[in-house]
Amino acid sequence: MPKQEKVSCLKRVTYLRAMSLAICAASIAALAAAQGPPSLMLPENQVTHVSDHVSVIIGFPNIGIVVGDRATLVVDTGLGPRNGAIALHEAQKLSRGPVLYLTTTHYHAEHAAGEGAFPPNTILVRPVAQELEVQQKGEQFVAMFSSRSAQMKELLEGVKFRAPDITFDKEITIDLGGATARLFWMGMAAHTQADELIDVEPDSTLISGDIVQNKTLPNLPDQYASMKGWVETLAQLRQHPKWQHIVPDHSPAGDGSLVEEDYQFFSQLQTRALELKRQGKSADEAGQTLLAEFKMKFPDWPNLNALPNVVKHIYAENP
Ligand SMILES: [Zn+2]
Fold it and tell me: Based on C-alpha coordinates, what's the Rg of the chain?
């Protein structure tokens, strides 16, 4: 897809409602299918404007850049320092003020392992609970990613995590000058034990990490992940006035309806899995039953193949 077309498609994803959103999601999925798996390298010179103060580099993962008059906040780093340098460079091109903040939505390698590329005066901010995960599991996750391919290994060579300059418990609001970024953690596990989200005002834009995605199954990578916590997190996000823009990390941007749609899907899946468990169905049987059921209920979600794994996780969480 030519760059111009891609940008206008992403703008439509951002600004229009469900119908065009579904079409764009499908065309981006078709693009991915035509080009093979997404590149591990962030694209250069391809920043998409989401709202007055928020831009995004669409890549693995999507990198949020929030620009105020005084300071700029970068959300996530990309996989390893070479990607971190691209995120930094794009942020510097957009920046209007002298101060640079960096935060990470969670400790996984594509979100945090590029922080070494940022200059020493960058102010790194993250929740205390996430910092504990960085210390306990960060290097282990980098090693796991490195074992997946030669390219990942090369990109992650010699990665060391740096200590944050500011930590917070549940939330902190940073004044960027003309815009604020509220960094918050809901206090419970979901994709990881300490997923951070970023609420940018006055833009009504939520940078949602893995927590709110666009027609994408929950990714529960290990025993620390929690479907219960994820559903409860979404239940609380539903109480917030609907955001105009939501920027997930691994799927196309959309509007506030993504929160409600994810809540409906995830909560109904959890409820049905627990019903089948009470009826004595095995996790495998329930997985197949619910795969068929949710394909019917949510026909515009493009890939539900991993749904039986989510059901297994729900069973394991509720012995
Ligand atoms: Zn992750």
Answer: 19
Ligand 1 centroid distance, CA of 194 (Å) = 11
Please list the residues that pair with 65 across neighbouring strands: 55, 74
CATH code for the domain in which residue 49 is found: 3.60.15.10
Å from CA of 17 to ligand 1 middle? 27
Ligand 1: centre distance to CA 281 (Å):
30
How many structural domains comprise the chain? 1
For ligand 1, the distance from its centroid to the CA atom of residue 191, given in whole angstroms, is 7
Question: How far is ligand 1, taken at its centre, from the CA of residue 12, in Å?
Answer: 26
Tens of pLDDT along 39-48? 999 999 999 9
Each residue's pLDDT tens digit, 241-286: 999 999 999 999 999 999 999 999 999 999 999 999 999 999 999 9
Residue span of the structural domain in which 119 resides = 3-317
pTM: 0.88
